[in-house]
Amino acid sequence: MAQSERSGRNAKGGVAKPERKPVRGSGADTVYETLRAEILTLKMEPGTLLDETDLAERFGLSRSPIREALIRLAAEGLVKTLRNRSSIVAPFDMIAIPSFLDASELLYRLTARLAATNRTQVQLGRIKHIHEQHSVATRERDMALMIRLNREFHLAIADASGNAFYANWMRQLLDQGQRILGSYLLDVSELGDHDLEGHWINAHLAIVEAIEARDADAAEAAGRRDFETIAVRMHERLTERPSKRLALT
User: Fold this and answer.
1) Which residues does the UniProt record annotate as the domain HTH gntR-type (predicted)?
2) CA 46 to CA 64: how far, in whole Å?
3) pLDDT tens digits, residue range 131-169?
4) Alpha carbon distance 190, 61 (integer Å)
């Protein structure tokens, strides 16, 4: 071993900086998955500044993978890049929820119906595989994973619809709606709504079975029920007023 290495000095005689130890599985993927989970579960609040230098220090990485992860998150609508090129967690638009729900119902029904008619065996296999993964995540109440796999499930169905425009619209819709779903699931988890597990898993299973049977009517109906599983409960949470249970006489 060279003397400079043994003494902790570099070749020019200066004190060598301690080498940063990257986190396990380091790289843009790790940063992306970690920040995405924190944003979706609202551990990182809307408007939070995402300083590249601070994040590089946190993850023990250079700024390049940090920047790459932020670009990916921005593409999903979870991060907003400002004019000065700094980044923040994207604002949360509660006003958009009714429009999001309306568009979700339409696309859930339409893509499921078309997938039942147009899917290939390979596409069906992918839909089944994602459903199995999502069922496990739902039983384990892994919210970040549930949200990601729900997105992948509906994207796989949209891809199987045979219409690239519908698939692209579904991707945009789900990307914009991830935190709406995440905020709802966080509330459900805190309230211990165990009924969600059976409803959500069974709703997805009904879609899979209808697509496999090439039953377009059943697939559309199952898509509607899947939407209602979330929409009805979300509406109940948003309109729940503790004061209405208070007896004043």
Assistant:
1) 25-92
2) 23
3) 999 999 988 888 778 888 988 999 999 999 999 999 999
4) 34
Beta partners for residue 15, in sequence order:
9
Residue 141 to residue 186: CA distance in whole angstroms: 10
Is 240 a residue whose pLDDT tops 80?
Answer: no
110 residue type, one letter: L
Burial 123-155 (b: 16+ CB within 10 A, else e): bbebbbebbebbbebbeeeebbbbbbbbbbbbb
For the chain, the C-alpha Rg in angstroms (whole number) is: 23
DSSP for the chain, written as a single string: --HHHHTTB-TTSSBPPPPP-PPTT-SHHHHHHHHHHHHHTTSS-TT-EE-HHHHHHHHT--HHHHHHHHHHHHHTTSEEE-TTS-EEEPP--GGGHHHHHHHHHHHHHHHHHHHHHH--HHHHHHHHHHHHHHHHHHHTT-HHHHHHHHHHHHHHHHHHTT-HHHHHHHHHHHHHHHHHHHHHHHHHHHHT-THHHHHHHHHHHHHHHHHHTT-HHHHHHHHHHHHHHHHHHHHHHHH--GGGG----
pTM of the model: 0.69
Strands 79-81 and 49-50: unpaired
| Interacting residues of 103 by C-beta distance below 8 A, sequence separation 6+ | 173
CA dist list (Å): 101 to 117, 177, 183: 25, 9, 14
CA trace torsion 87, 92, 95, 100 (10° rounding): 90
Of 177, 178, 223, 189, the residue nearest 203 (C-alpha): 223
Side chain identity at 47, as an amino acid letter?
A: G
Length of the chain: 249
